[in-house]
Amino acid sequence: MAQYKCENCNELRDSLICPKCGADTHLLDEPVRGAVAPRPKPVPAKPAPAEPVPAPPPEPLREPIRTTQAPPRPRPVADPPPKVQYDGGESAPPPRPAAAPVAPDVVGLDEFHAVLDRGTKAVIICGDAKSGKSEIAGGYIRANTNYRGRAQNLTLRAVLRTDYALGATNPNEVWYQIIDHKRAFLDPSGEFFNMLSPDTRQRLGLGDVSEADFHFVQRAVSKLAGIVLVVDLTHAVETKQQSPWQRQEDNLKFVLSALRWLRWDKEARPEAIRLSTNIAQQVSKFPRIDKRVLVLFSKADQLKKLTNQNPVDFARKRLPTLHGALMTHARRFRYDFCNTMIKTARGDEATDPCGLLLPMDWLLDDPLRWLPLQLPTSWIGGGR
User: Fold this and answer.
1) DSSP state of 171
2) pTM for this predicted structure
3) Are residues 178 and 314 in the same domain?
4) How many domains does the chain have?
5) Separation between Cα atoms, residue 355 and residue 367, nearest integer Å
6) What distance separates the 2 farthest-apart alpha carbons in the chain?
7) Residues spanned by the domain of 337
8) What's the average model confidence in pLDDT over 287-305?
């Protein structure tokens, strides 16, 4: 007979239901419901000893890939230059000359050089941009026409220019005006002179000046008839300072030394020395500028309180740097005031140019150069 076991009373019974507690029973041969037999732990098998793997046979050596391109030919080596014999010994070969700097293309310069080739001398007008250089040249021509009947049309430089409508010289341009059969004004753009200033070049990071920077004026200096320096009195840093035009003075000081150096220096310039250094070292060995130098204080009518005095005294007290440069580099020089040549913003020119005829007569007319009235600066060391 099958034996059953009560799950609740844990006693043997003869039926599937316990008569005592009414719980289910189960055969003794079956496992108890809900019970899970424990799984045996796997026993790891011992690894079999690894058999030695035979090494692969060595690959046969491959031949190097041959290309059809020919090996590069060796560059021919130039024969060294022969050494110069002197005093029984040898010297090193002379150094190769450095390439000359390329001169910039200056508008109008070739036309002016053609004028010089005809035997005309140059009167160079120097000064900052918009200082009145072109207006001074045009004003002198108008004054000659109005007061002396010497009619002379101004040279036109651009489209839409009419007679006597001059305006400023454009950057990277030179303008010239024929004075007579012997001389002509050369009016370079003020930017050229600004670029010669060491302070300006240092501020703009341009480095030292080069031969190309003097291209716009180099031939004119060799055929020099006179120099006009223009100081714009309205371009003052501060009129209450002792020297309110110091920047213009410094620029013109370097321009004077450079013009003196260009006029007389004929020797080769050493490459190892900077050009500005060479100018500073060599200029004192040369003669002073042998042509007259006229300093014009432009737009003086706009500063009446400062200009109501003798031009020489004004220059000595208010522009000492410029005065010292003239004493150093020029044999003969003169100061004078001149009024504004342009009266309105529309470009209307002054009917009666003031302050130009007598100074220009001293600069240009040979018969009047001996007059004491025309040579005031000779009394203070400007020469005779």
Assistant:
1) T
2) 0.67
3) yes
4) 2
5) 20
6) 168
7) 109-380
8) 90
